[in-house]
Design goal:
Chains A, B: Keywords: DNA-binding, Repressor, Transcription, Transcription regulation. The structure is a homodimer. In chain A, 41% of the residues lie in helices and 17% in strands. Chain A is of the alpha/beta class. Chain A folds into three domains: 9-54, Orthogonal Bundle (434 Repressor (Amino-terminal Domain)), CATH 1.10.260; 63-162 and 302-330, Response regulator (Rossmann fold), CATH 3.40.50.2300; 165-300, 3-Layer(aba) Sandwich (Rossmann fold), CATH 3.40.50.2300. The longest helix of chain A has 18 residues, at 302-319. β2 of chain A pairs antiparallel with β2 of chain B. The structure holds a DNA duplex.
Chain lengths: 343, 343
DNA sequence: ATGAAAGCGCTAACAG
DNA sequence: CTGTTAGCGCTTTCAT
């Protein structure tokens, strides 16, 4: 039953007796052009009857704009953080009447170049590169003139949006301090300071942590290093740290997964969290609310990165203004749940 | 420095002295048309020098095909399962030289209709609707002639791909049976059989479970009902079930999150999994490998749904053949980890 | 083996 | 207020 050909402006024009441009104007009702209200109504009715939907490819060819932004991710669609970033992006894009074309890449530069080329061939109005881990990355020289932005990571020549890690690190320490903790252990510092190509975010987070402890004239009771931030590290780290400094009252874990491991170790030692041991971490992934007690943690603003990134990009696209050269930093919010207790 | 205008076929034509159609032919090197190898080479070199990328909007306008498929999800981008489905889709699409345009919707039919309209205006060659939960849903009558498919869910008039729940339910029971368990408890059956608009998958899974137990002449030692499949249910369920039937040797949990709760309850009771209590569940979400012991579970084929769905869709798009009217069912794989022990 | 002409569906510029 | 003309960049006849 499907009409073999979809209706075009010409169909509506024929049906109503007006010309094609008139139909076009009426349907787009721009403020400037004055089409008689009566004809506009007629035309719209006809369009609705025919089930007309404008052909975006034709429109784009003519206007040079596609109302589409491209999203490339280095595996972000495959991780627990993808959701927020993509969702923020999609929502903002949709609110501002833009569609999103998505391409997945791995870490290989040639794959990224390929994805960039494909998106460019589709004439996207702007490009968003979302990175799962905050790393520095070498991107192909931005040849086209499209607006572009990188989320979470850093790349030479690309405007960027990322999490504001330094104050977050401070906040975590201060939260513990304010609740009376003076004997704090840290789990998850890199064995050596990470290269920017490996991580740009966590080292800054640790700088913030160190800054706040130094300011309070404090040293950690113990530290357990590591750079594979999975539960295993927290599990072993908690045992190590608690063996070394049994009077520790609070543990600062570099992320939620590590904190999860800490929780298991604490249970094994017969320690009750938070009565016997407080715990604070970073990320606020779904896991944080699945465990009991639920984790007090600093939420990484993935969703906001998507929203703000898309917003800035679309501002630039719309106004033609340049994107800020400075990296835009978004705060991590402290989510107080059940793992920190005042002593 | 950016060239204000991107290079077109005409630019290459001017530069090489050939005509625009010749350049087009040479660049697309179709089997049929015979362009001299020498000129093809010349043209390709020129194209590369200019950094030419074909304008997809122009091409689409002319050919009527966009080499793009649309993906709509009812919140799938926001859940733990999104990753696999989206990734399978993206990979298959990319392998077959198609791009993906994505739109996020909630459950409101009018939102879906809107997304459908937008994607249709972009003239996508095919439509994939991915649903997070396997439900039956009423979709706007498919007006356009584009190929379409629904993943995980069911909708009148839409070809579908979904998980093969019945044999998976059987397999879970049989796995326990084969390992000597005869005293099994079940956690997570709906209080009453779910409506298709709520869930089409889990009830079938339970049918499979019931079928295999009946076949073995077995009854569950105890059951704990519920339809909010979160850890809390498993936690309370395990306690209830173990209180009611302390001789239970294995628990069948309706999903991993529930199993996670079971693990916590077992620990609380001083029960060691799997030595004192075996446990099997469904989904294989990331959580399954984060807990210790790691969960033995039946993996939901989200990624495969994406792959197979995209594959079928693209077959239809390419060949013009119709998609199968039958729902295509994909197996759940049993992932043996550490929560089931032979007794 | 290559060129000339036409047209996909739309919008912008200019008449009237 | 509305119609005419033109053209975005590409591919597809049809000539040569």
């Amino acid at each position: 039953m499907a009409r073999s050909r979809r209706p075009t402006l010409a169909d509506i024009a024929r049906r109503t007796g007006f010309s094609v441009p008139t139909v076009s104007m009426a349907l787009n009702d721009k403020p400037g052009s004055r089409i008689a209200d009566s004809t506009a109504k007629l035309i719209k009715e006809a369009a609705a009857e025919l089930g007309y939907v404008a052909d975006a490819t034709a429109r784009s060819l003519r206007t040079g704009r596609t109302a589409t932004i491209g999203f490339i991710s280095d595996e972000v669609t495959v991780t627990r953080f993808a959701a927020g970033m993509l969702r923020g992006l999609l929502e903002t894009a949709e609110q501002r009447d833009h569609s999103v074309m998505i391409a997945e890449v791995d870490h290989h530069p040639e794959r990224i170049a390929r994805a960039l080329g494909i998106l460019r061939s589709h004439r996207v109005d702007g490009l968003v590169l979302g990175m799962m881990t905050g790393r520095e990355i070498a991107l192909p020289a931005p040849e086209g003139a499209e607006a572009r932005i990188v989320l979470n990571g850093i790349s030479e020549g690309w405007p960027a949006v990322g999490p504001d890690e330094f104050p977050a690190g401070q906040a975590a320490v201060r939260h513990l301090l304010e609740r009376g903790h003076r004997r704090i252990a840290l789990i998850g510092r890199h064995p050596e300071r990470a290269l920017p190509s490996v991580s740009t975010n966590i080292p800054v987070r640790l700088d913030g942590i160190d800054d706040a402890t130094a300011e309070a004239g404090l040293r950690f009771t113990a530290e357990h290093h590591g750079d594979v931030w999975e539960p295993e590290l927290g599990f072993r780290g908690a045992h190590a740290v608690l063996d070394a400094a049994p009077d520790t009252t609070a543990i600062l874990a570099v992320n939620d997964r590590v904190a999860f491991g800490v929780l298991q170790a604490a249970a094994e030692r017969g320690l009750c969290v938070p009565a016997d041991l407080s715990l604070i971490s970073f990320d606020d992934e779904e896991l944080a609310t699945m465990v009991r007690p639920q984790l007090t943690t600093l939420r990484l603003p993935y969703r906001e990165m998507g929203e703000v990134g898309a917003g800035m990009l679309l501002d630039a696209v719309t106004s033609g203004a340049a994107l800020p050269a400075e990296r835009t930093l978004l705060p991590l919010e402290l989510i107080e749940r059940d793992t920190v207790q005042t002593i």
